[in-house]
Amino acid sequence: MIDFNILVAVFFTLCVYSFVYKESPFWRIAEQTFIGLALGYTTILAIKNIVEVAWIPISTGKNYWFIGSIVLGLMLYTRFIKKYAWASRWPMAILIGIGTGVAMRTVIEAQIIKQISATFISLVADTALKTFNNICIVIMVTTSLFFFTFTGATGKVSGKIRTIGRYTLMLTFGATFGYTVLTRMTLFIGRFSFLWSPVARYYFITIGVIMIIALALKEKIEKFI
User: Fold this and answer.
1) Proportion of the chain above pLDDT 90, given as a percent
2) In the Cβ-directed half-sphere of 77, how many Cα atoms lie within 13 Å?
3) How far apart are CA 194 and CA 11, in angstroms?
4) How many other C-beta atoms are found inside a 10 Å radius of the C-beta of residue 168?
5) Quick one: 140 and 200 in the same domain?
6) 3-class secondary structure for the chain?
7) pLDDT for 119-165, tens place per residue?
8) Of 27, 43, 64, which residue is a domain's last?
9) Number of domains, the chain
10) Within its chain, how far is the Cα of 179 from the centroid?
11) What is the pTM of this model?
12) 201 Cβ contact partners less than 8 Å away, ≥ 6 residues apart
């Protein structure tokens, strides 16, 4: 008996991986399906949130001030009417202002305050390994900041400090890139393990062969046209 869920999962997985060879109709099918599903899901979720968060409280007489939020939301669509497009600037300005304020609070706390406080550590810890790590953190942070701040320094001491900072940045970028590649490989291994599992192996081989034949025939037909 054909398992439709596994069949669809294998088909779209192979459609996405077909882009590794070249852009093909299979890749476009997967791309357009993903975009369509994402837009549909987002739209339904937005409508559900409006009904549950705003419409139900308004209809039950609990929070009438939600009417203002609905009006502002509807004003966003006035941008499609040339005569009243100016009205969409009001809700957009409110969204940008609130979003910027909330984002700045979290960004300043997470990326500035937390980062600075994390570098103010004691050099001597309870173990030798922690002590070594703390010393490395202080040296790497200081030299990296020196590398970007004193770009025009040409002295011997400043040159050595900037060299250490440059090596620190290279190590950081390399570790970040390696972690990214490792994450992508983990995802690939997970998908390939699924494709080669006993429940999906038959679909993988069958659909893969059909896709290869279809792409080969497509290329031959394009040469004759």
Assistant:
1) 45
2) 4
3) 12
4) 18
5) yes
6) CCCHHHHHHHHHHHHHHHHHCCCCHHHHHHHHHHHHHHHHHHHHHHHHHHHHHHHHHHHCCCCCCHHHHHHHHHHHHHHHCHHHHHHHHHHHHHHHHHHHHHHHHHHHHHHHHHHHHHHCCCCCCCCHHHHHHHHHHHHHHHHHHHHHHCCCCCCHHHHHHHHHHHHHHHHHHHHHHHHHHHHHHHHHHHHHHHHCCCCCHHHHHHHHHHHHHHHHHHHHHHHHC
7) 877 888 888 888 898 888 888 988 988 888 887 767 788 888 888 99
8) 64
9) 3
10) 15
11) 0.71
12) 195
69 belongs to a structural domain: no
Do 84 and 142 lie in one domain? The reply is: no
Question: Which residues have CB under 8 Å from 143's CB, separation 6+?
Answer: 161, 162, 164, 165, 168
Asked if 59 and 84 sit in the same domain, the reply is no
The confidence band for 118, taking pLDDT boundaries of 50, 70 and 90, is confident
Helix 128-149 × helix 156-195 angle, to 10°? 110
Same domain, 169 and 206: yes
Q: Which domain holds residue 112?
A: 74-120
Q: Do 11 and 101 share a domain, yes or no?
A: no
CB 150 within 8 A of CB 162: yes
- d(CA 174, CA 170) in angstroms, rounded, equals 6
**pLDDT of 76 higher than 80:** yes
